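ABC transporter permease
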Amino acid sequence: MKGIWMARLQNLKRKPLVLISMTVMTVIFAYVLSGSVGSKLSLLVATDDSKMSKEVLESLQKEEDYALIVLSEQELQDTIKENRDTIGVLLNEKTYTILSDIESDVVSNLSLKVVSTYNNLAFRDQVIAVGGESKWNDVDKGLEDQAFQLNEASMDESKIFRYDGALQSLFGFMLYFVFYTISINVQFILEDKRSGVWNRLKLASISRFQLYFGHLSFSYLIGLVQMLLVIFVFRFIVGTNMYGGLWKVIIICSFYVLLVMAFSLFIISLVKTVSQSSVIISLLAVAFAMIGGAYWPLEIVGSEALLAMKWLSPIYYGMEALKRVTIYGETFSNVSTYLSMMLFLAGLLLIVGITLLEKRTERYHSSE
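Predicted structure tokens:
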């Protein structure tokens, strides 16, 4: 097995372009398509210069979820007309207007935040008008030291659609491009079998287990390293918010790499040449990305036929698990279905793939 790893490392040293290009393209695509703003929602805001509207603006600027761009009212109107996918807020003395072409969970949450800010400031002004600043300071201190805490939660969190453009792009393109990286590395098994290297290694007292384990473990490591590089770049350099789920993301990625590796092995067990394998993997990678939610959230897909096919895509399991432990803040127990399916499918495809490869090898030798 050590010899296999040395040979694969030498090949990687001679031809590192695949790993480098797939990693770089993941970073570029995810960074550009996420708007390069981390996980914050870009929000256009204008005020009528009243005291209340300015205080609401100051409160919104303290929110970590929003990246505010302050404009005049006319500039806001013109920008919204030119860019229909942007969200704007016009703050007045007693009212506000949200300018958006679509109704979404993001717009609803923003509206609740603005209303809450107006109400809190109005309550403060009423207390000050009646009892003065000292009275408000007492009330404010009492609110901070309240004896109970009210927690709000949806009755069914799984039915709420939450969207984070930065993580959608990051996870989607990361899972898509690593599919190619792992598949290309697994193809070395087929190449060795066709060239006769596999049989010469078996004659050198290297067991089948060592041969498969050497190739597959190296492919697994390469895929996992690529994903970790992308994750660390976005988390610690770009500053993408992963909602405290970084270690969960890493563990889920390890499951996904195992599934893609097993699927790639299954594909090469069905073909005769590396070129045939490359064509099939290229077609399936694009199809799996489309039906698995890598390019766009499946929540916006209206076709029941496409949604029914999502279970065929390895990318779907990884994408859903990653979004659940980050955007939705769920635990591993909540995504156990996706993890179990990835583990089960990986085991099944490994067994079937190796069995088919060995039977083909036996038929090839018997025909000689």
